[in-house]
């Protein structure tokens, strides 16, 4: 610690400051006494409104019950709306999966149809090749116009009739396959249209239900003093 200088206090100055402070405190107390507010005089009057305490407490209880019911109703509506949205999402996913399965089924049927057509085409080619081999060495149709047809003419006619029957049978099967494929395509289109109408109808009904519930909530909010609104079980 460095050197320091001790200053002797001035007792006269200290006494003067104490006297000034004491005088100011006394003046303040005197001013408070002189400016103390007087008694307040009011005209007697009735306070608290026109309702009794029991009626006011009853109204408070009713408002509390309404508030609890509205919160419960709002929570139930939220749960219902969430559940409906989840169900709609599930139905949408199921519809998408069903459409994929139907498209896959149509693709498989088309591939099967193409394989059958290729098989029938190959069978037709081999049949024609076999018939052409049978035709080798047989006389032509103009050379068979004789009075007494021989065994070669009869064989050629049989071969020609057999070939014609095979062609007609093949054409008939191809036509039946085309008609069956067309009927399946029309049936699938009709089924998809019905499912789309069903989904649209379900979505509209759900939207109508949600809108009605929202309107009911609005109506309940516009009638806060009515505790007996629809759905209230006391």
TrEMBL record:
Keyword Coiled coil: yes
Keyword Coiled coil: yes
Swiss-Prot/TrEMBL keywords: Coiled coil
Superkingdom of source: Eukaryota
Coiled-coil ranges from the UniProt annotation: 71-116, 164-198
Protein name in UniProt: ESIP1 protein
Naturally occurring in which organism (per UniProt): Cardinalis cardinalis
Chain's gene name: Epsti1
């Amino acid at each position: 610690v460095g050197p320091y200088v001790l200053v002797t206090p001035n007792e006269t100055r200290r006494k003067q400051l104490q006297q000034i402070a004491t005088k100011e405190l006394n003046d303040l107390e005197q001013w408070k006494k002189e400016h103390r507010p007087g008694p307040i005089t009011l005209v007697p009057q009735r306070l608290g409104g026109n309702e009794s305490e029991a009626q006011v407490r009853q109204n408070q209880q009713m408002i509390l019950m309404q508030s609890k019911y509205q919160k419960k109703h709002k929570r139930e509506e939220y749960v219902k709306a969430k559940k409906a949205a989840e169900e709609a999402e599930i139905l949408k996913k199921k519809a998408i999966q069903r459409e994929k399965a139907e498209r896959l089924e149509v693709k498989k049927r088309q591939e099967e149809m193409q394989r059958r057509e290729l098989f029938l085409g190959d069978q037709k080619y081999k049949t024609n090749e076999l018939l052409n081999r049978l035709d080798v060495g047989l006389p032509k149709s103009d050379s068979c116009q004789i009075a007494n047809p021989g065994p070669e003419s009869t064989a050629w006619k049989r071969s020609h009739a057999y070939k014609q029957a095979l062609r007609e049978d093949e054409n008939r099967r191809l036509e039946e396959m085309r008609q069956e494929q067309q009927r399946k395509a029309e049936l699938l289109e009709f089924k998809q249209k019905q499912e789309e109408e069903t989904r649209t109808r379900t979505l509209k009904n759900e939207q109508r239900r949600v809108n009605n519930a929202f309107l009911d909530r609005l109506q309940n909010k516009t009638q806060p003093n009515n505790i007996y609104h629809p759905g209230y079980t006391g």
